[in-house]
Design brief:
It is built from 1 helix and 5 strands. It has one domain: Sandwich (Immunoglobulin-like). Helix content is 9%, strand content 38%. Strand 3 and strand 4 form a beta hairpin. The protein has 76 residues and is mainly beta. The strands form 2 sheets. Strands 1-2-5 form a 3-stranded antiparallel sheet, with no helix packed on it. The chain starts with a helix and ends in an 8-residue tail after the last strand.
Length: 76
């Protein structure tokens, strides 16, 4: 598990909208598509109700991008 946490310390994610996540690559020499992939899930009462995989994270060193989670938001 240490190896995973060591890699992920250079990938920062931040929610910037209801379905939008900002992803920052802090590596100096690595493109994220070569080492990681992203998954998302929506849970309610401890159960996963929707899940999926993010598009390829072709993010160059020190790059940043916004990714929209492909899910329809339903309230009610």
């Amino acid at each position: 598990m240490y190896e995973v946490s060591h890699i992920y310390q250079y990938v920062h994610c931040k929610l910037v909208g209801p379905r939008t996540v900002s992803i920052k690559n802090w590596f100096d020499f690595l493109n994220l598509q070569d080492i990681v992939y992203g998954e998302w899930s929506v849970t309610a009462n401890g159960r996963v109700i929707r899940a999926g995989r993010l598009p390829d994270l072709n993010l160059p060193p020190r790059g940043e991008t916004n990714v929209v989670i492909p899910i329809k938001i339903v309230f009610g």
